[in-house]
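User: Sequence recovery, please. Input:
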């Protein structure tokens, strides 16, 4: 093992070098922040770990500053922070910035130090240190990709997972935000504890606080017994707030203190309860713009977005389409009497689409194309074209009968009118039409309707 010790106390560095040497490890030493960064630049590929002091006397730059730079430039190089004047605040900040651990020089024995170093270096090595390992990790969690942009995203997911930062995941509908949230949890120190999903739009407004925080018996009409909420269920694990952008404005303030301080009380109770939760949220809305328009509370936005992951749409990573298609067909072929493959022309047609519904839409079209092929061995271009025509827009328009066109125009007008009335809120539009939210989304993808444009009206 090769380490870098970055500390301005020379005697302490010498002591550590001797300790590590007895284990057969080699160590480089830096006594200033500039030396530390220069050494990392030269030896990043060789290093297994950086031991980094927080305080560098006489320098404007701190160890925390160096940590931020290392995390940005060398995301998979593990860093353990050390300090002779450690505080809880420093420890929390170091972990949030992505440090593997935080140790106090004054109270840590050499034996414990060696244990921390082994654990930190080992944890980093198992989290995937190269592109293929990172992409392989995503595949185990249902995210199939090979493009450079997704390889970069995979590395970022693994890096963020090791921290305790609250994460905001943004991206168009169908890009896989929930899968990314599950992957972050699976790669985090909380992986052995609950991952609890809260589907924000499906919680009735008047029951929101009860569902989130629980209630006590008699708190309101119908509260016949005590109830635990999502916060209780997610203790020590991750609480995933799906479609957080759909949360009503007047309910947003109820999350401010619970997220900031990890404390809350059940509806009808004054007893304060404490939990240990990491928050991951997801939305297809532009929350930054929503805060400026007064539609989303700025305080909540910053609490949820300590770091952000933006998932690219499928049209920006078309090189992933063949791999996704292959993966989907392999799953379908497991239960098929006649296994099927895509013809080159069929694959070309898939790659030519804009995919407003992203990966979810692609998989749906592949499933229908699979059925269209019947007992044949090949999924041909016509099978894909029929699947695209039946439920979604196709890049090359096909002929349609007049009755079909009349019906389609009527459906489109109804969707647009409902969205306009609901000011772009898909849940409310679905209620107005008496259909599910998924039906609204399907028709929006079919007709190329963007619900977001109605939120500005």
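Assistant: Recovered sequence (457 residues):
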């Amino acid at each position: 093992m090769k380490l870098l010790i970055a500390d301005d106390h020379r005697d302490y560095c010498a002591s550590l070098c001797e300790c590590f040497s007895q284990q057969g490890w080699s160590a480089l030493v830096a006594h200033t922040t500039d030396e530390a960064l220069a050494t990392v630049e030269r030896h990043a590929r060789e290093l297994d770990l950086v031991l980094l002091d927080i305080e560098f006397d006489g320098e404007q730059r701190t160890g925390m500053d160096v940590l931020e730079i290392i995390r940005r430039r060398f995301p998979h190089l593990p860093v353990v922070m050390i300090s002779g004047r450690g505080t809880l605040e420093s420890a929390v900040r170091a972990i949030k910035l992505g440090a593997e651990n935080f140790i106090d020089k004054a109270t840590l024995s050499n034996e414990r130090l060696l244990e921390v170093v082994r654990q930190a270096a080992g944890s980093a090595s198992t989290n995937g240190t190269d592109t293929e390992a990172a992409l392989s990790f995503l595949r185990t969690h249902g995210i199939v990709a090979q493009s450079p942009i997704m390889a970069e995203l995979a590395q970022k997911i693994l890096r963020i997972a090791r921290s305790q930062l609250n994460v905001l995941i943004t991206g168009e509908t169908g890009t896989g935000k929930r899968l990314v949230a599950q992957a972050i949890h699976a790669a985090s120190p909380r992986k052995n504890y609950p991952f609890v999903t809260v589907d924000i739009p499906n919680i009735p407004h008047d029951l929101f606080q009860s569902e989130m925080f629980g209630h006590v018996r008699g708190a309101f009409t119908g509260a016949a017994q005590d109830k635990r909420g999502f916060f209780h269920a997610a203790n020590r694990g991750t609480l995933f707030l799906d479609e957080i952008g759909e949360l009503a404005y007047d309910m947003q303030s109820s999350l401010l203190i619970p997220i900031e301080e990890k404390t809350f009380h059940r509806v009808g109770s004054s007893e304060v309860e404490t939990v240990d939760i990491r928050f991951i949220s997801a939305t297809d809305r532009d929350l930054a713009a929503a805060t400026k328009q007064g539609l989303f509370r700025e305080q909540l936005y910053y609490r949820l977005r300590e770091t952000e992951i933006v998932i690219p749409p499928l049209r920006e990573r078309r090189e992933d389409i063949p791999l996704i298609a292959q993966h989907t067909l392999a799953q379908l072929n497991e239960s098929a009497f006649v296994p099927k493959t895509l013809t080159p022309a069929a694959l070309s047609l898939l790659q030519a689409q804009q995919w407003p519904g992203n990966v979810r839409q692609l998989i749906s079209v592949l499933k229908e194309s699979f059925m269209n092929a019947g007992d044949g061995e090949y999924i041909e271009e016509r099978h894909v074209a029929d699947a695209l025509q039946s439920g979604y827009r196709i890049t090359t328009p096909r002929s349609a009968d007049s009755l079909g066109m009349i019906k389609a125009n009527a459906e489109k007008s109804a969707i647009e009118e409902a969205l306009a009335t609901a000011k772009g809120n898909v849940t409310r539009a679905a209620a107005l039409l008496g259909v599910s939210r998924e039906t609204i989304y399907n028709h929006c993808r079919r007709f190329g309707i963007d619900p977001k444009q109605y939120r500005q009206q």
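The radius of gyration is 26 Å.
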